[in-house]
Amino acid sequence: MKTVYEVRSATFADLYKIMALYREVALNSGGIAREADEITEGYVRNFLEKSLVSGVLLVADNPSDPKELIAEVHAYTPGSKVFAHVFSDLTIVVRPGFQGRGIGKLLFGTLMGDIEKKHPEILRVELITRESNEKAIGFYESFGFKVEGRMEKRIHGTTGRLEADIPMGWIRPGQTWL
Ligand SMILES: CC(C)(COP(=O)(O)OP(=O)(O)OC[C@H]1O[C@@H](n2cnc3c(N)ncnc32)[C@H](O)[C@@H]1OP(=O)(O)O)[C@@H](O)C(=O)NCCC(=O)NCCS
To answer: For residue 45, how far is its CA from the centre of ligand 1 (angstroms)?
Structure first.
């Protein structure tokens, strides 16, 4: 039987589950701009608080272990009024053993659907991904994000070389800009 994964909004009670998920991704999969020992409670608390106050944070529970999350995505407004129409610092992770099963697509599709319907004030969503993360770049493009440039030599790649970081953005369709 096909497993059904459900997406829900996170609460503060998810803090340690999110931390465990990020550590596992950093250790076994890569893709995020932090190593496992940098996934501290302070790091997770910071984006959890910001996302709950002025953004979105969605998670998927492991259907066979409720103590564990299998995926998380978040984004929030940068803080000042001039960026009140922007969701930034977007990060998505899927637990390594669960990648490639459509869970990222489900989670990201839910996020973008929520932004389109529940956050009409958000006109731009932005993120950064390293150039070697072709899977993530293709994934974001499939949701309408566009590559907006290259930040050369910005990030230490997995091979030990410096590589480019790729800024990507989604602009709400159908806007008439002044
Ligand atoms: C990137 C990530 C979130 C994708 O989640 P996932 O659950 O593995 O992806 P899914 O199985 O839902 O893949 C869905 C879609 O991604 C896209 N995709 C996946 N691999 C792709 C590739 N190599 N090229 C282009 N598109 C790709 C496709 O649109 C695919 O859908 P389809 O094949 O059904 O048409 C996940 O692999 C992950 O957590 N990686 C590690 C952390 C990371 O890199 N996060 C992003 C930081 S910027």
So the answer is: 25
